[in-house]
């Protein structure tokens, strides 16, 4: 069964509004989670690393004021797309590592499709 | 040069064929290797996970790692139309570090 969930699965919003996406680890704690975005027919692009209890680490070229990340608890990370614009329309996916230290692997959520009109 | 190279395809094969998917990498620090399958409009699903050179088999899937050549492969036996998806290789140096993905190979298995 699924080990990482995302909500919502899809969202349509007007330009200028903010959208919050939740990522939850199910039945395990995740001190670290990762946020990706994916454009059609392209691979995943890492946006940021979400760390419980500290600030997120953003990849080069990703605006931290545009994509707000909050790791509220050991099972929940949120990504807020602020003042969304049509170019932010994409597929957003989170992942969380699970397993013994040194042997952990990452499990992905089902993704959230965002369409900004 | 990208850290991980993967032919994006598309790769089209008849049902029942053996499929070979490959990735090469340049960073010798990578220790853990994964293959994910992603259906259209879905999140990636973990297929195989290995952390040593050699072969690992799971049903119709076999993952192969050759660290000396920095080359990993995924073989799919008796391919089915339901195997049609994008296959992503991924690797990590260890710990809770970020995965480095290949571009993904689009596979189509036709009846």
Which class do the helix and strand fractions of chain B yield? mainly beta
In terms of DSSP E residues, the strand content of chain B is: over 45%
Runs of chain A in which pLDDT lies below 50 for 5 or more consecutive residues are none
Approximate shape of chain B: globular
Coarse morphology of chain A: globular
Secondary structure: number of strands of chain A: 11
Which structural class fits the helix and strand makeup of chain A? Answer: mainly beta
Radius of gyration of chain A: 14 Å
- Would you count the extended β strands of chain B for me? 11
Low-confidence stretches of chain B: none
Largest sheet of chain A: 7 strands, mixed
What's the mean pLDDT score of chain B? 92
Walk me through what this model shows.
The complex is a heterodimer of chains A (117) and B (111). Chain A is mainly beta. Chain A is built from no helices and 11 strands. In chain A, strands 2, 4, 5, 6, 9, 10 and 11 form a 7-stranded mixed beta sheet that branches. In chain A, a hairpin with a 5-residue loop joins strand 5 and strand 6. Chain A starts with a strand and ends with a strand. Chain B has no helices and 11 strands. In chain B, the strands form 2 sheets. In chain B, strands 2, 4, 5, 9, 10 and 11 form a 6-stranded mixed beta sheet that branches. Chain B is globular and about 40 Å long. The relative contact order of chain B is 0.35. The mean pLDDT of chain B is 92. At the A-B interface, strand 9 and strand 10 of A face strand 4, strand 5 and strand 9 of B.
Topology overview:
The complex is a heterodimer of chains A (117) and B (111).
Chain A: E1 4-7, E2 10-13, E3 19-25, E4 32-38, E5 45-51, E6 57-58, E7 67-73, E8 76-81, E9 90-98, E10 105-108, E11 112-116
Parallel strand pairs in A: 2-11
Antiparallel strand pairs in A: 1-3, 3-8, 4-5, 4-9, 5-6, 7-8, 9-10, 9-11
Chain B: E1 4-5, E2 11-14, E3 19-25, E4 32-38, E5 45-50, E6 54-58, E7 61-66, E8 71-76, E9 85-92, E10 100-101, E11 105-110
Parallel strand pairs in B: 2-11
Antiparallel strand pairs in B: 1-3, 3-8, 4-5, 4-9, 6-7, 7-8, 9-10, 9-11
């Amino acid at each position: 069964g699924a080990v990482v969930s995302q909500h919502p699965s899809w969202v349509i919003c007007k330009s200028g509004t903010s959208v919050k996406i939740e990522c939850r680890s199910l039945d395990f704690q995740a001190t670290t989670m990762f946020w990706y975005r994916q454009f059609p027919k392209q691979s995943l692009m890492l946006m940021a690393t979400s760390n419980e209890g500290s600030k997120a680490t953003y990849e080069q070229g990703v605006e931290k004021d545009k994509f707000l990340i909050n790791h509220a608890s050991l099972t929940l990370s949120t990504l807020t797309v602020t003042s969304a614009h049509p170019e932010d329309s994409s597929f957003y996916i989170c992942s969380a590592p699970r397993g013994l230290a040194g042997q952990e692997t990452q499990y992905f959520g089902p993704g959230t499709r965002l369409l900004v009109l | 040069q990208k850290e991980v190279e993967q032919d994006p395809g598309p790769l089209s094969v008849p049902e029942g064929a053996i499929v070979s998917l490959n990735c090469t990498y340049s960073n010798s620090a990578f220790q853990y290797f994964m293959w994910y399958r992603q259906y259209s409009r879905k999140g990636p699903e973990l297929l195989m996970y290995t952390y040593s050179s050699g072969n690992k088999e799971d049903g119709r899937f076999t993952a192969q790692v050759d660290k000396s050549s920095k080359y990993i492969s995924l073989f799919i036996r008796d391919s089915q139309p339901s195997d049609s998806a994008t296959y992503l290789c991924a690797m990590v140096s260890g710990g809770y570090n970020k995965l480095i993905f290949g571009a993904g190979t689009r596979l189509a298995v036709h009846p």
